[in-house]
Amino acid sequence: MSHLPEQGAAKIPATFTEKKYLVTLVFVTSLFMFWGIAITMGDVLNKHFQHVLSLSKTQSAFVQFAIFGAYFVMGIPAGLFMKRFGYKNGVLLGLSLFALGSFLFVPAANTASFGFFGIALFILGCGLSTLETVAHPFVASLGNQQTSDQRINFAQAFNALGAIMGPAIGSYFLLRNNVQGSTDLTSVKLLYIAIGSVISLIAFCFSFVKVPALTDPHVTGANPDAVNIDMEPGKKLIHHRHFVWSVIAQFFNVAAQGGTWAFFINYGHEKMGFTDVVAGNYMIIFMALMLAGRFVGTFLMRMIAPHTLLAIFAACNVLMCIIIAQSLGWPSFIALLMLNFFFSIMFPTIFSLGLKNLGAHTQQASSFISMGVVGGAVFPFAMGAVAEYDVATAYYLPIVCYFVIFLFGFKFYKVH
Predict the structure, then answer these.
(1) Which terminus of the chain has a lower count of CB atoms within 10 Å, N or C?
(2) Angle, to 10 degrees, between the axis of helix 62-103 and the axis of helix 362-371?
(3) How far apart are CA 76 and CA 366, in angstroms?
């Protein structure tokens, strides 16, 4: 893994990865894209189910509850499975659950049962949670630990690409043919058959990939200058304050994400007068700005410390939420689009800062930070309840979330 130069010798810049890891890195990076597609597809489903199943905004928020609630349930089991059976088997478990949940959309559509859809979404969410728990430390281990942050942010850029593809695919196959009063769920059924088939093929191909032996650099304590080496190996995970705060920050981060994304199409329809299809197309731009934000953020991190940039972006989003809630027409809608630009770096940066210097605790910590995603399960209900009266007013609520993230980036990121 990381071969550090002898004392007094000139330090050689750490490489992004090594040739032996390239095939594995390509497969694992693709996972970030696929769960990005699945999560943002849920936001389109939210609006589609309001139409075809005659649901209120509060009721349709159960889509996010089922997906993100699965993260809370599956976080620790996924971490334990990964620790016992390894990264590769963890990925295969996640892909299997992802495919199973997708195929369960067929009987759910046949019965037109929102409860059945909830079960399918929960199982699908368990697959996403497993993939997310495994993929972050997996990517981090595929090369020198001094470049682990770069690999995670690179992989997260493909997650943003998937987040762009999700609403594009969902709008085309689901919202494009929406007819007032229609209860037809055929498009949902066919779309998720296709998704399940693709994920099954990915799992089949990955099962034949030979993953090189990994000496987990998070566990080996070779050099105090190396990244993610636990300086106090006897210290319990719960006593690492920066880790605890990363879980809290991730909870509020995904809470803001879940609510903001779930009612984006509603905002475009109700406040801007767009059709659902046009609002769905603007959601593609919304997600593209997140991708742009990841690239801009990664570049800025060369000059600005990641925790400082996190605090700056969180403060910017507080301002964006205030503007959105004023219902000023295009200025507010542009602020809504920019919300995702500033949101862009938050998830990977919080994740990366939370895993610093945890040594052998890293895999367990990854599980707990992934469990923080449960914030996306509960917050859309609160925003949905307010959005029943005014969708713009609902965007005051994420201000609390971004303030917590600001505190983490400003002060509580510090490793003690």
Answers:
(1) C
(2) 120
(3) 9
| 284 occurs within a structural domain | yes
> Using one digit for the tens of pLDDT, what is the confidence trace for 168-193?
898 888 887 666 666 778 889 999 99
Q: Which domain range does residue 157 map to?
A: 19-412
Q: Is 334 left (phi over 0), alpha (psi -120 to 50) or beta?
A: alpha
Within a domain: 3: no
Has residue 334 got a pLDDT over 90? yes
pLDDT, tens digit, 9 for 90 and up, residues 274-328:
988 899 889 989 989 988 998 898 788 888 888 999 999 999 999 999 999 999 9
Please answer whether residues 114 and 105 qualify as being in contact, where contact means their C-beta atoms are separated by less than 8 angstroms.
no
How deeply is 35 buried, as exposed, middle or buried, from its count of CB atoms within 10 A (0-12, 13-18, 19+)?
Answer: buried
Q: Is residue 11 part of a domain?
A: no
CA separation for the pair 106, 104 (Å, rounded): 5
In a domain, 4, yes or no: no
Alpha-carbon Rg for the chain, nearest whole angstrom, is 21
User: Distance between CA atoms of 283 and 250, rounded to whole angstroms?
Assistant: 23
CB 408 within 8 A of CB 310: yes
Q: Domain total for the chain?
A: 1
In angstroms, what CA-CA distances link 274 with 44, 261, 266, 341, 380? 15, 16, 9, 22, 22
